[in-house]
Amino acid sequence: MSIEFSTACELAEKIRNKEISSRELTDLYIERIERLDGEVNAVVVRDFDRARAAADRADQALSEGRSLGPLHGVPMTIKEAYNMADLPTTWGLPDFKDNLATEDSESVARFKAAGAIFLGKTNVPLNLADFQSYNEVYGTTGNPWSTDRTPGGSSGGSSAALAAGFGALEAGSDIGGSIRNPAHFCGVYGHKPTWNIVPQQGHSLPGMLASPDIAVVGPLARSAEDLALALDVVSGPEPLVESGWKLELPPPRHAKLSDYRVALWPTDPMAPVAGEVADRVQQMGDRLAALGATVSDSARPAFEIARSHETYLYMLNGVMAAGLPQEVLDAMEAQVSALDPADQSDNAVMARAAVQKHGDWLRHNNRRESLRMAWRDFFQDWDILLCPQTATPAFEHDHRPIPERTLAVDDAMQPYFQQLFWAGLITVAYLPSTVFPTGLSGDGLPIGLQAVSAEYADRTCIDFARLMADEIGGFVPPPGY
């Protein structure tokens, strides 16, 4: 594979061995962005002058025998939602188009402390709230595999930049699949960490200080090895608690795929997935069973799936509605008061969740604790849950108002946000999940699957994905890049 698609680990080694300089690599990625990013529109905030200067400093340090860290001189990009000093942070909202960050977010600071160099920032949906990445500030990002299709959201620019070879590493955020969905759509790797093991400070708009419930920040990459390195770099206590709190993630549970106990969840009546996506889960299970792994397609955690999904929707919309203007919340209150109490559709539940009282949240939070306990028990018997990330491969851009959108799943039309089920199943219980590529669909589009494990078993998810790449192959570049 050509050098622009090398992993961050490989590039760091090449720089250390002086096979290539950081400046040469930085210039190579800048040239690719300037030449190829027009139709993709992934790297929407460019910081090339500072990147070149940082690369020169990295090369100078190496010539003096000094190491800047495990990512010494490696160029990367990062999601626009992260603060980076003197660059805009808008979350795609026109009202914030002139908002310049005054300091680096915690993740940016940690990547820099590890020696990474930032080329710029990548595109997002409006307010990070879509499976597509477009907004009035930066325009629309296309999927490098087919630019008429979405790269996913909300870390869509992140996954598109990696797939197109515009940098070595990325970082996104996830509350409804926003790391995992783009990784699946673009054929790259993405890791949703256990909640709160990576500080969220500075992944924010002005005035946002507290880390939101269920939301996480975490890495995207072109290999599982890079996910592991990036997680090592950014995980750990947040600044407010670092004097009395430390993180010790356990090592992977097994060294060989044959030793893993894997539960398969290929599809579900609550959110049916396309046949070829469900089949891919089963194919991976068959491959694992042939290697000697223990595989089950019937093992499930001991809770009611519908109640789990409802709890997730209350947690999700409690977070997403927190920053809405009062007049919007007042209108939603009126909408909710007119609902039939018997209406338990997703739309009705999400509306109620947006204006829930604190007592409602506490009741759902208590239910969430029972879900966490059920998952804890499940992962005493099983190491990995293998399931879809979303219902289909990347779909065509659809910029109609969200209430008007649907998603074609084989021959059936589903509500647009029904696909949240697969993300929420994992998110509500704080579980870690690694999305890894499994090859292409019949239409030549990537299919990624989730490898999920117990809380704090992040290294197990990531290393399982690494072992799967050894068995079935990993990232492949899209044609033309």
SSE topology:
Elements: H1 8-16, H2 22-40, E1 43-46, H3 48-63, E2 75-79, H4 106-113, E3 117-122, E4 134-135, E5 139-140, H5 156-164, E6 170-174, H6 180-186, E7 189-192, E8 216-221, H7 224-234, E9 261-264, H8 275-291, E10 294-296, H9 305-320, H10 326-337, H11 346-354, H12 358-381, E11 384-388, E12 406-409, E13 412-415, H13 420-427, E14 433-440, E15 446-452, H14 458-472
Parallel strand pairs: 2-3, 9-10, 9-11
Antiparallel strand pairs: 1-3, 4-5, 6-8, 7-8, 7-14, 11-15, 12-13, 14-15
Helix pairs in contact: 2-3, 5-6, 7-14, 9-11, 9-12, 9-13, 10-11
Say which CATH homologous superfamily of the domain at 3-255 is assigned: Amidase signature (AS) domain
Please count the helical segments: 14
- CATH architectural arrangement of the domain at 3-255: Alpha-Beta Complex
The secondary-structure class comes to alpha+beta
Distance between the termini: 12 Å
- The ordered H/E elements are HHEHEHEEEHEHEEHEHEHHHHEEEHEEH
The overall pLDDT average reads 97
- The share of residues in helices is 25-40%
Outline the structure in words.
This protein is of the alpha+beta class and 481 residues long. Among the domains are: 3-255, Alpha-Beta Complex (Amidase signature (AS) enzymes); 305-365, no CATH class. The chain contains 14 helices and 15 strands. The chain has helices spanning 8-16, 22-40, 48-63, 106-113, 156-164, 180-186, 224-234, 275-291, 305-320, 326-337, 346-354, 358-381, 420-427, 458-472, and strands spanning 43-46, 75-79, 117-122, 134-135, 139-140, 170-174, 189-192, 216-221, 261-264, 294-296, 384-388, 406-409, 412-415, 433-440, 446-452. Helix 2 (22-40) runs antiparallel to helix 3 (48-63), helix 9 (305-320) crosses helix 13 and helix 10 (326-337) crosses helix 11 (346-354). The chain is globular and about 70 Å long.
